[in-house]
């Protein structure tokens, strides 16, 4: 189909067709919107949250747990006086490294209770296991607290080497605390649990 | 304002929640002291305990949306590990229940395997549950293809252990299988029962491989003992197993 040219009746010159406004603008807006949505999905890690992709932790801790090392850590905790009720230890090899992370689970839904936990001082407790853990190739420990409903609320993690350094007097308590990281796993759940606890 | 209050509440909870409901005053003091010290060295509060709103907001938002970083890849993974940890714990519970059913002598297909299947699905790259399910298959005399299925699982376990690139991981995998089988055989004998022939043959194969890898004479002795049991026919067999 050939395009029909319109001429100006006075000058005889062809009249240029005016470009329709609006579509280009809409197109740009849609592209921007798509970029924002994609960025949001990436930044907020939506695929990981809805189970479409593995989280960094799932990839890192995909290998079998080391039950022998976990038993040694548990023995050390019990030697320190920790009541094992509701306490679980998992030692996970870190993929593609010689590192291991020890997860110490304190699960209130399985009977863990600070009143009879035997944990007199949290810093002393972690220092007590750090040297043995480090000898076993465990370079990081994480304590994960589960509430009475079995929901993970809080994770505290630290490198074992710093605990050993603290126990040897090489670093101060403050320097040790700088190496401790805390993550709240469920802020809203934590708020609800606090409400319940205070009622 | 509401947002700020929410963040402060969240921060207080984050620091003190696990301990508020269950601690006696003496214990609480030590834990609160540690929490306060942590908040101070991370600039969330100053030395007088006054909240640094900027840092608190960053911490609160970081936790709320998962932006926070410890500055260390393994630290970040540990903080973000709950999903992985829950899968490990659930898989362990399923496997434990599978063992309970197997030790109780229950029907393998109906009551044992569903637990191991669940564990394998939860931890697809974990050889532990492949070994466990393989052992369960070896005890299923009602399934004529039980050995093939067991071998599929054992092969998968070996491939997973090899994939790690660490020889020690392969050895750990073999030892886990050997110990799980030895415990089960011991239990069966204590119950005046017998292991299956398929189990004994797998034990023999595993001891042979372990001896070849470690040159530990204990494995050689165990290998000879199992070989004798097989020769003397101390095992359960189905009619076709002659």
Explain briefly what this protein structure is:
The complex is a heterodimer of chains A (199) and B (242). Chain A has helices at 23-43, 46-49, 56-60, 67-80, 122-135, 160-167, 173-178, 187-198, and strands spanning 87-93, 100-107, 138-146, 152-159, 181-184. Chain A is an alpha+beta fold.
Give the key terms.
heterodimer; A: 199 residues; 42% helix; B: 242 residues; mainly alpha; Serine Threonine Protein Phosphatase 5, Tetratricopeptide repeat; 2 domains; 75% helix; elongated
The percent range for strand residues of chain B is under 5%
What is the overall silhouette of chain B? elongated
Distance between the termini of chain B: 80 Å
Decide which structural class fits the backbone of chain B: mainly alpha
Tell me the domain tally of chain B: 2
Strand fraction band of chain A? 15-25%
Instruction: Spell out the helices and strands of chain A N to C.
Output: HHHHEEHEEHHEH
Shape-level CATH architecture of the largest domain in chain B: Alpha Horseshoe
Element pattern of chain B in H and E:
HHHHHHHHHHH
- Choose one word for the global shape of chain A: elongated
What is the CATH H-level superfamily of the largest domain in chain B? Answer: Tetratricopeptide repeat domain
Averaged pLDDT of chain B, please? Answer: 83
Oligomer: heterodimer
CATH class of the largest domain in chain B: Mainly Alpha
Mean of pLDDT of chain A = 82
Low-pLDDT residue intervals, each spanning 5 or more residues of chain B: 1-9, 17-25
Largest sheet of chain A: 5 strands, mixed
CATH topology of the largest domain in chain B: Serine Threonine Protein Phosphatase 5, Tetratricopeptide repeat
| Order of strands in the sheet with most strands of chain A | 1-2-3-4-5
């Amino acid at each position: 189909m050939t395009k029909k040219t319109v001429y100006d009746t006075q000058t005889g010159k062809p009249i240029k067709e005016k470009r329709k406004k609006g579509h280009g603008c809409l197109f740009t807006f849609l592209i921007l919107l798509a970029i924002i949505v994609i960025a949001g999905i990436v930044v907020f890690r939506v695929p990981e949250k809805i189970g479409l992709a593995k989280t960094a932790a799932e990839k890192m801790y995909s290998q079998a747990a080391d039950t022998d090392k976990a038993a040694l850590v548990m023995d050390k905790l019990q030697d320190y006086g920790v009541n094992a009720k509701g306490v679980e230890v998992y030692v996970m090899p870190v993929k593609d490294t010689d590192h291991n992370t020890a997860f110490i689970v304190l699960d209130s839904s399985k009977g863990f209770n600070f009143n009879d936990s035997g944990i007199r001082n949290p810093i002393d407790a972690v220092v007590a296991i750090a040297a043995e853990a480090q000898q076993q190739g465990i370079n990081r420990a994480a304590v994960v607290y589960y509430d009475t409903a079995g929901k993970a609320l809080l994770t505290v993690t630290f490198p074992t080497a710093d605990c050993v350094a603290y126990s040897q007097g090489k670093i101060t308590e403050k320097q040790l605390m700088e190496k401790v990281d805390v993550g709240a796993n469920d802020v809203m759940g934590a708020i609800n649990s606090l409400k319940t606890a205070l009622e | 304002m509401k947002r700020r209050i929410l963040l402060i509440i969240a921060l207080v909870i984050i620091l003190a929640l696990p301990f508020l409901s269950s601690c006696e005053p003496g214990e609480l003091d030590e834990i609160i002291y540690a929490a306060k010290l942590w908040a101070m060295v991370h600039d969330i509060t100053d030395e007088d305990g006054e909240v640094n709103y900027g840092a608190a907001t960053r911490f609160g938002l970081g936790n709320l949306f998962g932006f926070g970083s410890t500055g260390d890849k393994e630290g970040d993974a540990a903080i973000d590990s709950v999903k992985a940890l829950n899968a490990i714990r659930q898989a362990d519970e399923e496997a434990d229940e599978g063992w309970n059913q197997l030790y109780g002598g229950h029907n393998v297909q109906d009551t044992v395997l569903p637990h191991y299947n669940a564990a394998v699905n939860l931890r697809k790259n974990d050889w532990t549950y492949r070994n466990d399910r393989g052992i369960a298959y070896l005890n299923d005399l009602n399934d004529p293809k039980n050995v093939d299925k067991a071998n599929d699982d054992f092969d998968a376990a070996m491939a997973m252990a090899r994939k790690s690139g660490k020889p020690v991981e392969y050895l750990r995998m073999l030892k886990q299988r050997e110990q799980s089988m030895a415990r089960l055989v011991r239990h069966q004998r204590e119950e005046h029962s017998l292991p299956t022939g398929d189990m004994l043959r797998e034990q023999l194969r595993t001891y042979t491989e372990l001896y070849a890898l470690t040159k530990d004479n204990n494995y050689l002795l165990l290998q000879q003992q199992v070989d004798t049991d097989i020769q003397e026919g101390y095992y359960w067999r189905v009619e076709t197993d002659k």
